[in-house]
Design goal:
alpha+beta, five-stranded antiparallel sheet, 10 helices, globular, disordered N terminus
Amino acid sequence: MKKLFLGLAIASNLLFANVINSVALTVNDDPITFYDIKVLMDRQNISKDQAVTKLIDQLIFDQLVEKYNITADVLDIEDYINKLAAQNGMDVYTFKTLVSKKYPNYEVFEEETKAVIQKQKLVKKIVAGQLKIATDEDLELYYNNNKNNYTTAKEIDVIQYASANRAALAQAIKNPMMIAQDVQKQNVKLKAKDLNAQLQFILNSINENNFTPILKANNGFISFFVVKKIGTEVQSFESVKNKIFADVMSQREQKFLNEFFEKEKITANIKIVK
């Protein structure tokens, strides 16, 4: 009886494995398996229909990337990161340090960056001058209608950690209660209007009760423990003009790509296998 039960269990598992690994549908002859659908459903906690739609979209995008010979290598990623850092008034080292606080696995950030670069290159290929470049009037209109996207805390209460020894400062950040002889601590109230663009961006990106990355200072290194953010104020148009331009053009690119993408989906040869 036990052997019979075991045999049935093995047969059932094999049948399930065959179903999971079988092809559910094809998109222009490229397959999507039941396993692909199940993994995405579990990973993103979405329905089967949502998972299928996302997988079809991704497959069509991959096919377009291949069709237009789109590549994104390490140099492309580094160049994009350099531009992002400059756009936010930061040096590359500080920007990467900030990113690493939000992405414990830096490779995830690189993969997301690679996808963004591929989309931008694809847009350039298919747009071919059809995308209107944002004017100053466009930027001012967008800024006036989306000021909430460009706000900063008026004041920020911080504990400033400073040291000539970077290793000592890093150790103090890991163990804030420890008394470090090489690290000076000071309670400071910072006003947004007195901060440069880089520090303002960093402090607004860090949640309360968290440290900023270690930054280079005139006489060594510095980090801030963000205690409390007080009030909000809108950043001036000129101070965020580059970011506004990037936001506006990104939206236009995305809209154009979506419209182009929908046309591709309509003409795609999608077949349900099972």
